[in-house]
Design brief:
Elements lengths: L2 E6 L5 H13 L3 E6 L1 H10 L4 H4 L5 E4 L16 E7 L1 H8 L6 H11 L3 E6 L6 H13 L2 E2 L13 H14 L20 H8 L3
Parallel strand pairs: 1-2, 1-4, 2-3, 4-5, 5-6
């Protein structure tokens, strides 16, 4: 059975984490959820749900303060970990090995065991500190996956954009969401006139 650790920090974008959990639940993926106290606050602020509503979506919910949880050990085998959304504070703690709560400890374990760690980072604009932390973690093997807007799939609603981010996140683990919209290429090349107009911004 596939098994993922899912962490949610206090960054904006709680709905992406919720949609991810809903999708993993539908795909029958075993999930181990960690919520920080600020994640709980953001969920309440940004959505019509609260932390208790998420317990039915995860297989197991771990207290962020429980450093003795199963997922704090490398002997607990998982396919990887996703932190969504990932705040810049959480990013910095992981980069510097400050495993001072279960969320950062689980991420630290994921890195040391050479398992996939996906960080759905949320901040705008990005400072030099943020960029350096992202680069350092990318070099350590983490996947930095900011929830970028995409327009080639012609999104009509906010849900379309959220679903796209979730689908691209799950792609990292080989899981396919049924709502994923893939790039299908261009069936014909634009004419030379169209290319010219594009270049000059017409």
């Amino acid at each position: 059975m596939k098994r993922l650790i899912v962490g949610m920090s206090g960054a904006s974008g709680a709905i992406i984490g919720i949609r991810l959990l809903e999708t993993l639940h539908d795909l029958h993926i075993e999930t181990h959820l960690i919520l920080t106290k600020w994640a709980e606050a953001t969920i309440k602020l940004e959505t019509w749900q609260n932390a208790k509503d998420l317990t039915c979506l995860a297989t197991t919910v771990h207290s962020v303060s429980n450093q003795a949880a199963t997922i704090s050990s490398g002997s607990f085998v998982a396919d990887g970990m996703i932190i969504v959304p990932c705040s810049m504070k959480t990013l910095a703690h992981i980069r510097h090995g400050l495993a001072d709560d279960l969320l950062c400890r689980a991420a630290d374990v994921t890195l040391k065991e050479k398992r996939k760690l996906v960080l759905v980072t949320r901040e705008m604009p990005l400072s030099e500190i943020h960029l350096e932390n992202m680069l350092a973690l990318a070099r350590m093997g983490a996947v930095i996956l900011p929830p970028m807007l995409t327009f080639y799939n012609h999104p009509q609603t906010l849900d379309d954009m959220i679903n796209h981010v979730v689908a691209r996140t799950l792609d990292q683990f080989g899981f396919c969401a049924d709502f994923a919209q893939r790039w299908e290429g261009v069936k014909h090349s634009p004419s030379s006139q169209q290319q010219k107009e594009t270049q000059i911004g017409i």
